[in-house]
Amino acid sequence: MRHMVVLLYSPPMSYENISNFSFLSEDVSSEVATVSILLDGEEADLECVKSKNLNISSEEFVAADAILVTYSVTDTSSFRKAVHCLTMLRDLANKQPVACLPLGPGLRSKAVILVGNKSDLARIRSVTTENGRSIANKYDVKFIETSVTIHHNVDELLVGALTQVRLKARQAAALSCKHHAKFTSRAKNLWNRLMQKCDLRFHSCDNLHRL
Fold it and tell me: Which InterPro entries match (predicted)?
């Protein structure tokens, strides 16, 4: 199965640094790269699209299965831009038809991850982990900090993005079974399992393996 992942970034995060993400092309001139991932015995192709200046059109938003909003933990300006981007994404989501928002308003129906890069530069950090986590909780999105330079959490981000896409698709399918079809015992069991995963006691914005 193929999924579209849009990576949104802005200066001072350099184009070259963004291109070092393992799931993106090493060719800095390339805007699109595809990578295959085998997760839980099921293979998926992620088509990763880079978009500078945190820009995304309504059409791209609808087409995207996952969106990564990035900022530098060493630059408060890039963090503010990322927060503004999340507001824009939420507004785009709320303009969609209800049928396109099976999991509710806002960004709940889309796999969106806030990504704080350059986490290895502790001495010049200006955006705390708690700052990022707080914003992620506010916008109901996932959160992770990475370091492209030392390859910290880069693979985790990739696997987490695919996991979120699958979890949201399964939850939407379970909701569809509940509201639009006969609620069979099989569908009910699926629904119950998904609701257990969504239990607020276990909810954490930085756990990319839960909804």
Answer: P-loop_NTPase (IPR027417), RGK_GTP-binding_reg (IPR051641), Small_GTPase (IPR001806)
- Measured between alpha carbons, how far is 198 from 14 in angstroms, rounded to an integer? 36
The pairs formed by 30-35 with CB atoms below 8 angstroms and a separation of 24 or more are 35/158
> What pTM value is reported for the model?
0.83
- pLDDT bracket for residue 43 (50, 70, 90): very high
Other CB atoms within a 10 A radius of the CB of residue 162 amount to: 24
The residues, ordered by sequence, that sit 6+ positions from 192 with a Cβ below 8 Å of its Cβ are none
Question: Is there a contact between 157 and 111 (Cβ–Cβ < 8 Å)?
Answer: no
Give tens-digit pLDDT for 29-38.
456 778 889 9
The beta-carbon contacts of 201-209 under 8 Å, at least 24 apart in sequence, are: 205/133, 205/136, 205/137, 205/141, 205/142, 205/143, 206/133, 206/136, 206/142, 206/143, 206/144, 207/142, 208/113, 208/142, 208/144, 208/156, 208/157, 208/159, 208/160, 208/161, 208/163, 208/164, 209/160, 209/163
Half-sphere exposure of 84 (CA within 13 A, CB side): 12
∠ CA 162-166-172 to the nearest 5 degrees? 145
Per-residue pLDDT band for 28 (boundaries 50, 70, 90) equals very low
Buried b (16+ CB within 10 A) or exposed e, 89-112: bbebbeeeeeeebbbeebbbbbbb
